[in-house]
Design goal:
This protein is an alpha+beta fold. The protein has helices at about 5-25, 30-35, 55-60, 90, 225-235, 255-270, 280-290; strands spanning about 60-65, 70-80, 85, 100, 110-115, 120-125, 150-155, 165-180, 185-190, 200-205, 210-220, 240-245, 250-255, 275-280. The chain has three domains: about 5-35; about 55-220 and about 270-285, Beta Barrel (Thrombin, subunit H); about 225-270, no CATH class. Helix content is about 25%, strand content about 30%. The strands form three sheets. The protein has a six-stranded antiparallel β-barrel. Strands 7-8-9-14-11-10 form a six-stranded antiparallel beta barrel. A two-stranded antiparallel ribbon has the order 12-13. About 30% of the residues are buried.
Length: about 300
Amino acid sequence: MSINSIALKSIILKTTAFVSIATQLGGQSYMEKSLSNNVIQVSAPITTDTSGKMGIVAQSSVLRVICQSTKMGGTGFLHKSGVVITAAHVVLNCDNNDLLLVTSSGDQIGVNSVSKDENKDLAILWPEKPLQGPTLQISSSSSIEVGSQITTWGFPSGYNSLSPLLTVGYLSGIDQIKTPSGVLINRWVVNAAFNSGNSGGPVLDLEDGSVIGVVSSKLAPIPPYIESALEALSKQTSGFVYTKTLPDGSTEQISEGKIIAEVLLYLRSQTQLVLGHAVTSIDLISFLNDNKIDP
């Protein structure tokens, strides 16, 4: 008998003895089950907390941003410098006096001043009084991998509680979009349920809890001819006229075509493809530096 045959026979005898002892101690052993089924189980306990390392911090530092004159709003988050970061379109066409920050504890705080960059879709809000609580750290990494799991916290439309809601997803890729002014800007493409109201919320790396982006928009593509048709409807003056009551109590006469356009645009806003755009951390850091704020 060769040396290899002797070694193999020894291994078989030891393995058989181990299975026999394990069976005597507790019935059919894990190894025996695996061998009898010709399979090796590869499952493992799930230990990842989907809220991430900064889940508790996010619930305190993420707040609601409201424009009182339009009754529209979005999400923002507290930076270590004391300012609140949000998306520029959340505060667009809203006077500083009409802006309101609502914290998770229910405090309502006004805004003294605003700095925004519409191309980057970022805005900084200076609260009327200091906001207390933990803050989120902005990632300094420029090489975040596609496939990384992310979370975001925010206040989607229709949700009225004080604590932000958690959304979990993945970094799917990077896209280049053209802003209304014609500037090309890089955006993260995120596979997550971004909804109206989530804009301005932080996009966090699940593993280290750092901010890698800011929610900007969800993808809801529309063909050019449909877009032009909606624009034509919104300018139509014929047909019956409806009296619309605005948030401030005033009224406005709108035509039949405009009513149809508003309804269709609202329905489009509810479309969810579970894909969205987020401002990159590179643009966020650049924007903070432009405003002389240490990222």
